[in-house]
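Backbone Fold Data
Goal — fold tokens
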Amino acid sequence: MRDNFAEINVVPLVDVMLVLIVIVLVTANFMVRGVIHVNLPTAESGQNTTQAALHLEMAKDGSVYLDERKIDEAQLVSRLSEESRDKNILISADRELPIQPFVTMVDLLKKQGFNRISVQTEK
């Protein structure tokens, strides 16, 4: 009678582990993209930026996010005053965003002394 239970069946354990791996792989894609949904504009040319950047996101309603937190203009100016002027700034603006809020944002960054401003696009 003891010989029947001498082996452990690992098939259910492998099934559970495969399901957990699939869940992790599927949710990892959402974690990388962020919580703010921005439809990026497309461009044929462009360069990859590998340097650390301050990342601003602009939704199609004109709201601005810094580090995935909604921020108003006064808070942004306060936060930018703490940053080095040599820091790269990456703007991810929704393709449906009117041009004026984008131009206003770039103008604000220029007034604060930032000259290294990039726009994120998709190929």
Summary: Strands lie at 53-58, 64-66, 69-71, 88-93, 117-119. DSSP finds three helices and five strands in the chain. The mean pLDDT is 83. Residues 11-33 form the longest helix (23 residues).
